[in-house]
Design brief:
Ankyrin_rpt, Ankyrin_rpt-contain_sf, mainly alpha, Serine Threonine Protein Phosphatase 5, Tetratricopeptide repeat, repeat, 52% helix, ANK repeat, two-stranded antiparallel sheet
Length: 740
């Protein structure tokens, strides 16, 4: 590669190196000036790429996170970058980097629980404060430290690795010399992030580098060792994920590889604009037909990063270009799919103008127009439609373009599609219409357009849900208002006989529930098992909606076909708040179902300990039996709910009470508990260790059958027996001898 090509991009590489190696004390103004002058003005790096680079740099330079956050905020403010655009382009950044995006502005803040406190071991290591580490070691054994040191993307569990990660050489060598810390394979990997030469050399004395070492060196722009790394036999470039280079924009690495073999950077280098200089300078050496292991070619990579100069350069090679413009990767995506998928209008227009197949579909049957609408790229959508894109195309799950327009409330496109579309009530998957989709996403205007254009307002999906049911599920109050205004049946039921009010209660959609009530919905309507909306609210701990229903006249003691009322459902859900609400408004705390089971029975079945104790303190009888002879204690012990059993025993329940099969809590402990904790609890409350069930079997006999050896000894030690053998010992003692 010529010195001229290298020199042209030297400023770019220096700027990126600096961006990834910012010190906490660096000047915010100087860094912003460098970004705006070098990257934005001189090299035309897109705002989106710079934002990604800033966030990505935090991963490898965590000690400077607070300065990176200021850079991010200032850069977004300078260039009027809206929060909605960031959400659209980078939906996963916030979760993956443990950052929080302010709801009202383009502003990120570090999660306070992650950045180490100043007087912590992590902080000392981060800033190589050896004296504090030495002082810390006086009262703490550094050999036994086993904790998780959290940084974005990394959960480092050893302090030696942490010192390598930060390049803290003083602490690193202190730990090696004075404590029993070993260099594992993780240590050299982290050392290429810390980029301390002495630490790296020490690590390589003990471990050969692997592909992760190379990945970390590239992504952190620590390029000094890269040429040496790729010479190691332990580095396998044939399996290396070169897409990491694209994220980091590490042009230096590309140059190093290109100098050795230019085809080693083909085709992925096309995602970095500055690679065009390499392509031009080594034109005669390049295998333009080479594909990446996932089937992508040069055009895929150039399109996915909006590298227009590279696309134009490649288009000059007509035979190659026309042969690859519609090539599909392993996921059946063309270069145009990639341009649209990343919201790149310029690349999309260029490929369309050059003859890209505008009706190509991916592996899910999504067309080019489908991609454009899904990403709200209306300009591209109209270009596609104007040159004959198929507006009746559907994806593999039968989702039409009308569904997509309704989802994103794309009114202009929706009206055009309706005008030229044959069936406004077309369904996909489980019978879902565009109106269902509009209701789900609260696309108010789209819903009105669809209704006025003839959409069937009470159309049902496979499960009998209408658009009103869907609006209730997602609390799309405004869309529900439109539906009701235009005549939606507010009492229509689905296949389970549930009204929209049932659904609103289930999902705690209070606003929509209130609208339905004001619109005259039957507040006490029952579904197929006799549950009304208040039962649904109680069963799902929808406290706010429950109170609204009660105040609006819902029958709080209404019973299902099996006699369950709202209080029964609340007993199962560990929600004291719901129980208190129901009792406050007159729920019958002593209500029984048709099986004579009380709320305490329900709490016991679900191990709702706090709720159970609340009921007991309110006067619910602990010793109460169902028609089948089951008490709350017996239900809890059969399910292995030790804490609930303990609660009932504390309030005086009989430890030796029996279920219909004659089995006690101790029998249940042997038969159903995974360990001996329940048995020991029962014994501590005076359980009869020799109690027999209806089959004449004692807990010990079941122990022997199930080979619960440890529990056998426990029972014997507390007096368990069955009969005396001729040798003078009881057969339990014989069994104990067998175990020994």
């Amino acid at each position: 590669m010529s010195d001229n090509v290298i020199g042209q991009n030297e400023e770019f590489m220096k700027a990126y190196y600096k961006l990834y190696h910012i010190s906490p004390s660096d000047s915010l103004e100087e860094i912003l000036e460098m970004i705006n002058t070098v990257l934005v003005k001189n090299f035309k790096v897109p705002f989106s790429q710079i934002i990604v680079s800033i966030i990505h740099a935090i991963k490898y330079n965590y000690r400077s996170i607070n300065l990176y956050i200021k850079i991010f905020n200032q850069f977004c403010m300078m260039h009027s970058i809206e929060k909605s655009l960031i959400d659209l382009l980078f939906p996963d950044i916030w979760n993956s980097d443990k950052l929080i995006l302010d709801d009202n502005a383009t502003k990120i803040i570090c999660c306070c629980t992650l950045f180490p406190l100043e007087e912590s071991l992590h902080y000392y290591t981060m800033f190589d404060q050896l004296e504090k580490i030495i002082y810390y070691s006086i009262s703490h054994d550094l050999n036994d430290i086993n904790k998780l040191f959290l940084t974005p993307h990394f959960g480092i569990s050893r302090i030696l690795d942490l010192s390598a990660f930060y390049g803290s050489s003083n602490i690193f060598f202190y730990l090696l010399s004075n404590f029993k810390h070993e260099i594992t394979q993780n240590t050299p990997q982290y050392s290429f992030i810390g980029n301390n030469t002495d630490i790296i050399k020490e690590c390589l004395k003990h471990k050969d580098p692997d592909n992760v070492c190379l990945e970390y060196a590239i992504e952190s722009h620590n390029n000094d060792f890269i040429e040496d790394l790729i010479r190691y036999e332990s580095i396998d470039l044939s399996t290396f994920d070169f897409t990491n280079v694209i994220v980091s924009q590490n042009l230096k690495f590309i140059q190093i590889l290109a100098n050795k073999d230019v085809n080693s950077i083909i085709p992925w280098c096309a995602s970095i604009p500055q690679s065009i200089d390499i392509l031009k300078s080594k034109d005669n050496e390049i295998d333009y037909n080479k594909q990446y292991r996932d089937g992508r070619n040069l055009l895929h990579f150039a399109a996915q990063s909006n590298c227009i100069d590279i696309l134009e350069f490649l288009s000059s090679k007509r035979d190659f270009f026309m042969g690859k413009i519609n090539a599909k990767d392993n996921n059946l995506l063309t270069p145009l799919h990639y341009a649209l998928n990343n919201y790149f209008e310029e690349s999309s227009e260029f490929l369309i103008s050059e003859g890209a197949d505008i009706n190509a579909k991916d592996g899910n049957g999504k067309s080019i127009l489908y991609f454009a609408l899904e990403r709200r790229m209306n300009k591209i959508a109209y270009i596609l439609i104007s040159i004959g894109a198929d507006i009746n195309s559907k994806s593999n799950d039968e989702k039409s373009l009308i569904h997509i327009a309704a989802k994103y409330n794309n009114q202009e496109v929706l009206e055009f599609l309706i005008k030229h579309y044959t069936d406004i009530n077309t369904m996909y998957k489980d019978g879902i219409t565009a109106l269902h989709v509009a209701a789900e996403h609260n696309s108010i205007e789209s819903a009105e357009i669809l209704i006025k254009s003839g959409a069937e307002i009470n159309a049902k999906d496979k499960y009998g849900f209408t658009a009103l049911h869907v609006a209730a599920e997602h609390n799309s109050k405004e869309t529900a208002e439109i539906l009701i205004k235009f005549g939606a049946d507010i009492n229509v039921t689905n296949k389970n006989k549930e009204t929209a009010l049932h659904i609103a209660a289930e999902y705690n959609s209070k606003d929509t529930a209130e609208l339905l009530i004001k619109s005259g919905v039957d507040i006490n309507a029952k579904e197929e098992y006799g549950r009304n909306a208040i039962c649904y609210a109680a069963n799902n701990s929808s406290t706010e909606t429950a109170e609204l229903l009660i105040k609006s006249g819902a029958d709080i003691n209404s019973k299902t076909q099996e006699g369950y009322s709202a209080i029964h459902f609340s007993a199962r859900r560990h929600s004291i708040e719901m129980v208190e609400l129901l009792i406050k408004y007159g729920a019958d705390i002593n209500a029984k179902n048709i099986y004579e089971e009380t709320v305490l029975h329900e709490a016991a079945k679900c191990d709702s300990v706090e709720t159970g104790e609340f009921f007991i303190k309110k006067g619910v009888n602990v010793r109460t039996y169902s028609k089948s002879g089951m008490s709350p204690l017996l239900y809890a012990s059969m399910r292995g709910f030790k804490d609930f059993v303990s609660l009932l025993l504390k309030y005086g329940e009989d430890i030796n009470s029996k279920d219909p099969k004659g089995r006690t809590v101790l029998h249940h402990a042997v038969l159903y508990d995974d360990d001996d904790s329940m048995a020991k609890l029962a014994i501590s409350y005076g359980a009869d260790v020799n109690a027999r069930d209806n089959n004449g079997k004692t807990p010990l006999q079941y122990c022997k059958m199930l080979k619960h050896h440890a529990l056998v000894k426990t029972l014997i030690s507390h007096g368990a027996y069955s009969r005396i053998n001729g040798n003078g010992r009881n057969n339990c003692q014989d069994h104990a001898l067998e175990l020994n």
